[in-house]
Inverse folding.
């Protein structure tokens, strides 16, 4: 049987009584069988001795080490698109580069996809700076959409639980 700490996500050795990483007791850990399926822990009734399923402990993911750097890169690299700048409007593509957070987490293909979107938005914005009001509205909506999309992907990467060895 494999034991995983619900506090920090670390593996707990079978012969240990607590997590060596955070110190949580092994009593309320996440248990996996040999095939990797969750095993519901049982608690014996004090009066009759019959086993009953226990409530499943909640797993609180922790940020990966230095994950905040990827979040900052994603936030700053994308948020500059929303800053108004004189008569040309948002700075999308010129100073905002989507995908910087993906680069930090070594997700090369996804980062390249977001770089392409940044370049495309730059070309669309600065080829025709005299956009109509509707075009500007659509442009701002797409800018906000891609900012949120890339930031949420980086957020998930920053809070991924550590992979367990099988």
């Amino acid at each position: 049987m494999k034991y995983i700490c619900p506090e920090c996500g670390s593996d707990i050795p079978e012969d240990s009584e607590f997590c060596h990483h955070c110190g949580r007791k092994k009593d309320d850990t996440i248990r996996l069988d040999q095939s990797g399926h969750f095993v519901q822990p049982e608690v014996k009734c004090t009066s009759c001795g019959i086993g009953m399923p226990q409530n499943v402990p909640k797993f609180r993911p922790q940020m990966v080490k230095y994950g905040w750097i990827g979040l900052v890169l994603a936030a700053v690299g994308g948020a500059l698109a929303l800053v108004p700048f004189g008569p040309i409007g948002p700075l999308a593509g010129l100073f905002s580069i989507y995908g910087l957070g993906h680069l930090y987490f070594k997700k090369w293909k996804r980062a390249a996809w977001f770089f392409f979107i940044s370049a495309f938005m730059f070309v669309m914005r600065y080829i025709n700076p005299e956009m109509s009001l509707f075009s500007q509205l659509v442009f701002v909506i797409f800018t906000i959409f891609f900012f949120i999309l890339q930031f949420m992907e980086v957020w998930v990467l920053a809070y991924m639980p550590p992979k367990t060895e099988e």
The chain is about 40% helix and 10% strand. The chain has two domains: 1-60, 67-158. The longest strand covers residues 2-4. Residues 67-158 form one domain.
